[in-house]
Design a protein that fits this description.
By secondary structure, the chain is mostly helical. It has two domains: 95 residues, Rna Polymerase Sigma Factor, Chain: A (Orthogonal Bundle); 69 residues, Winged helix-like DNA-binding domain superfamily/Winged helix DNA-binding domain (Arc Repressor Mutant, subunit A), CATH 1.10.10. The chain is built from eight helices and no strands. Helix 7 packs across helix 8. This is SigE family RNA polymerase sigma factor.
């Protein structure tokens, strides 16, 4: 009979380990991941949004939402992926709200470019941003995540919830469209 007790204790420990895994990622792990990747998440939001002022709001809102749903993040290794996906989704929502707001405005917003923006680098950046805005939404998201956020194709596929083949297709079509747009006379 003494042999049965250790088995029962072992089963109880296994059950406790399973409960810990089923409980989701811990607050400490989520906070640590957020702190370690805050700058990259902020950069991701900045590349997806055309207004850098709201990037911090998007990243902080992403943390709050993942924190609220942390029990669903069963694999702590995927915490960063959940944060990235939430930043992408919140950026999309912010852009949708802005587009709706622009449609509701009676007159267009004036262009407020300053006189100092005449430098060559600024012109290059402006033309790239303009060309990026002309891409399809998925093409822009794939290129931003792949080349500006320095993600692998697999990470991009996981973040956007699309197949690896779709990432490759959107990426190559996006680059081709950028080449055409950047070579076109202004």
């Amino acid at each position: 009979m003494p042999a049965a007790r250790p088995a029962r204790i072992s089963n109880q420990r296994d059950g406790a380990d399973e409960d810990a895994v089923a409980a989701g990622t811990t607050v400490d792990h989520l906070t640590e991941t957020y702190r370690a990747h805050y700058r990259s998440l902020l950069g991701l939001a900045a590349l997806l949004l055309d207004d850098t002022a709201s990037c911090e709001d998007v990243v902080q809102e992403a943390f709050i939402r993942v924190h609220s749903a942390r029990k669903r993040v069963r694999d702590p290794e995927k915490t960063l992926a959940y944060l990235r996906q939430t930043v992408v989704n919140l950026s999309r929502s912010a852009l949708r709200r802005r587009i709706l707001g622009l449609k509701l405005l009676s007159k267009p917003m004036p262009d407020m470019a300053s006189a100092e923006e005449g430098a060559y680098d600024q012109l290059e950046r402006d033309s790239l941003i303009k060309a990026m805005k002309g891409l399809q939404r998925r093409q822009r998201e794939v290129l931003v995540l792949r080349y500006f956020a320095d993600m692998t194709e697999a990470q991009v596929a996981e973040t956007l919830g699309i197949s690896l083949g779709s990432v490759k297709a959107y990426g190559s079509r996006g680059i081709a469209a950028l080449r055409v747009a950047m070579e076109a006379p202004a």
